[in-house]
Amino acid sequence: MLSPAQGLSVLALTLTPLAAATAVASDQSLIDQYCSGCHQASDESGSWSRISQQRKTPEGWDMTVARMQVMHGLELPNDARRDIVKYLADTRGLAPEESEAQRALIERRLNRIESFDHPIYQEMCARCHTGGRAQLQRRSQGEWEHLVNFHIGQFQTTEYQSMARDRDWFGVALDEIVPWLAETQGLTSEAWEAWQQAEPHEPEGEWQLWGHWPGEGDFYADVSVVPAEGEDAYRVALDGAFTDGRRLDGDGQAVVYTGYEWRARLTLNGRDFKQVLDLSREHPGGRIFDDLDDALGMQVTMLPQEAQAANLVASLPASLKAGERRRLVLLGHGLDKGEIDLGEHVTLRRVVERSAHRLVVDVEAGSQLPTGWLPVTVGESSADALLAGYRQVDRLEVSPALGVARIGNDKTPPVSGVFTAAGYTQMGDETLPLGQVPVRWDVAPWDDIAERDEDVKFAGVMDAATGVFSPAGAGPNPQRQYNANSVGNLRVTAAVEGQPEIQDEAQLIVTVQRWNNPPLR
After folding, report:
1. pLDDT-based confidence at 85, cuts 50/70/90?
2. Please, which residues bridge with residue 435 across strands?
């Protein structure tokens, strides 16, 4: 029997390639073998009580199987667990339209504020876990009722916790929440019916990928995806660079669930990451994150390298400042031929790399560079709103507005505070987005209590150049009053380099470890 920590291993098993391709009939046999002792098989092929009345993400099914192991003593070999989760996610998953609203939860994007259409759903269901966790499930009305009963049976203190003592929690859950969930998240849907008939997205081939690595900078890479042993399993190789010229190399393994849910383990420049992608999008995108510190992650976009109509898709960076000399990376198709024209105020100094899907150049923006969108033309491709020119930053926006970091140690690694600063400039009545602009970061006490307790001294260290806050170690601190932990309540401030008067701020709460870290929280 697995321990809770082993059971909720964040898809540690299912994110590795399957040992061998497994036929659907064999997967059904595994459920008959390991699950039918409690879940009765029906006369209909591939249908079992409780199991067939639910649909979930790969993470959701993995958490369900883990709970069967931890709470009910299910003994299940690792290979069988992988195959069962794969089969359930493929046959009882969510369509892309159904998972779209909660991609942030699937991608482990922290520090977000939830809101829902139901007036008390947050108070009823989002006190112990995110509301999005239930939004990533589809059930029949009877199964939603079973879930309410499960909460009362498994967590007997539910009705006595905050925001439950002032109401008939059980009655409200059954009479108000269940009907709403059954209506908005019922077992059947047109989206799921259509998706089951659609052709799965095939990731095999050559791709280009780009994003921003906190603390490292913008990057781009050629990605090769080839089949591996196992059903919908792939090997991945990355060959790329940061925009300042430093190398970025890596490889990994991936599995595709439900025809579009890409899950991979990657090693990039010697560091281990996980990757979640939605392959159903026109430009597949998602997030790469450090599994031990999931605040450290990067949103990425992928684009096939295969020949398409000439076009420009992305620019790294997103803006150029007057008088600035820097490296510019343009991504798209059909970029290997023709004249390169960035407008009369941008001088092309050197072509560093040029291919059909990528152009890397060193450029210099003139001192008279106008504020506004710069005309970008590469051969037959042109873009009018891809690269912004500016003379000054008029507004700064720090994200997230409220962040949470966690102290840690070897057994429970710390969770960083990761902040970004987006710049904007005014062009008449229009506000022009500049993307991330150079800033200096600092922290200060959030309030009088934080100042009294010297939170800035004890809670951790902010990297002034990157916006990454590294929390202090966990455990009692003898230098603090009452030997308190090194927690804190901090004010994070970003100021534009060369324009220190242009600032924005956010709040950072540095708190204790989180002991239960399931893939969907």
Report:
1. very high
2. 423
**Any idea which residue has 């991330």 for tokens?**
436
Q: Measure Cα distances from 503 to 56, 439, 498 in Å.
A: 43, 9, 11
Q: Do 346 and 365 touch, CB atoms closer than 8 A?
A: yes
Give the chain's mean pLDDT.
92
Half-sphere exposure of residue 446, counting CA atoms within 13 Å on the CB side?
16
Task: Using alpha carbons, list the distances in angstroms from residue 119 to 125, 137, 488.
Answer: 12, 20, 33
CA-nearest of 278, 276, 295, 279 to 287 is: 276
Residue 20: pLDDT band by 50, 70, 90 thresholds?
very low
- Alpha carbon distances (Å) from 16 to 58, 77, 90, 93, 208: 13, 15, 16, 19, 23
Q: Which of 210, 172, 231, 224 is nearest to 30 (CA)?
A: 231
- Reported in sequence order, the residue ranges of 258-345 that DSSP labels E, i.e. its strands, are 261-268, 271-278, 285-290, 293-304, 311-316, 319-321, 325-333, 340-341
| Helix locations, 287-432, DSSP H | none
| Nearest residue to 407 via CA among 455, 371, 446, 439 | 455
Per DSSP, the residues of 70-92 read HHH-----HHHHHHHHHHHHHHS
Q: How far is CA 363 from the centre of its chain?
A: 33
Residue 448 host element (H or E): helix 448-452
User: Rounded mean pLDDT of 133-150?
Assistant: 96
Tokens at 225, concatenated: 């995806």
Residue 26: pLDDT band (50, 70, 90) is low
Q: Decide if 472 contacts 455 (C-beta within 8 A).
A: no
| Single-letter code of the amino acid located at 82 | R
DSSP 425-446: EEETTEEEEEEE--EEEEEEES
What helix, strand, coil percent values describe the chain, rounded to 5?
25, 40, 40
What are the E-state strand segments in 73-159? 137-139
CA distances from 199 to 321, 359, 448 (A): 45, 33, 59
Question: What pLDDT digit, counting tens, does each position of 396-436 carry?
Answer: 999 999 999 999 998 899 999 999 999 999 998 999 999 99
Tokens 């299940």 identify what position? 76
Q: How far apart are CA 257 and CA 235, in angstroms?
A: 15
